[in-house]
Design a protein that fits this description.
This protein is mostly helical. It folds into two domains: 43 residues; 47 residues. The chain is built from five helices and no strands. Helix 2 packs across helix 4 and helix 3 packs across helix 4. The protein is rod-shaped, with a radius of gyration of 34 Å. The termini are far apart.
Length: 126
């Protein structure tokens, strides 16, 4: 007859640990300085993300009702790249518009000097 062995969950295997106030403050400073992330601290020290956020609220001076909007650096880089692309396209569009105006003026001058209707539609009824 098989005996059932009871597996302990990760929660049961964890020891009850306490972290010093200095340690918590140091980790909060690292998070607010964007040197590390909440998820990294949570995984490295086997603490729930909720506990790390409690440290942040306690030691960073941030109130719980305030919302902290965190934008990842990759999004910021993408936005900057898109802004640069828009500026480049606007510059290119301006140059093309100048070329069109130049060519149109050149056609007008050629029509005046050669007395020929260059813009005339060929093949249509006149």
């Amino acid at each position: 007859m098989k005996s059932k062995t009871k597996k302990k969950s990760n929660f049961e295997l964890r020891r009850i640990r306490t972290f010093s106030e200095d340690f918590k403050q140091k980790k909060v400073q690292e998070i607010t300085a964007r040197l590390t992330r909440v998820s990294e601290v949570s995984k490295e020290y086997q603490v729930t993300p909720a506990a790390v956020y409690k440290w942040i609220y306690r030691y960073s001076g941030m109130k719980k009702k305030e919302k902290l909007i965190v934008e990842s650096e990759s999004d910021t880089r993408k936005m900057e790249a898109l802004k640069l692309k828009i500026a480049e396209l606007e510059r290119s569009l301006g140059q093309k518009q100048i070329q069109i105006e130049f060519l149109s003026k050149m056609i007008d001058i050629a029509e005046e000097s050669y007395q020929v209707d260059i813009k005339k539609k060929f093949g249509g009824k006149q």
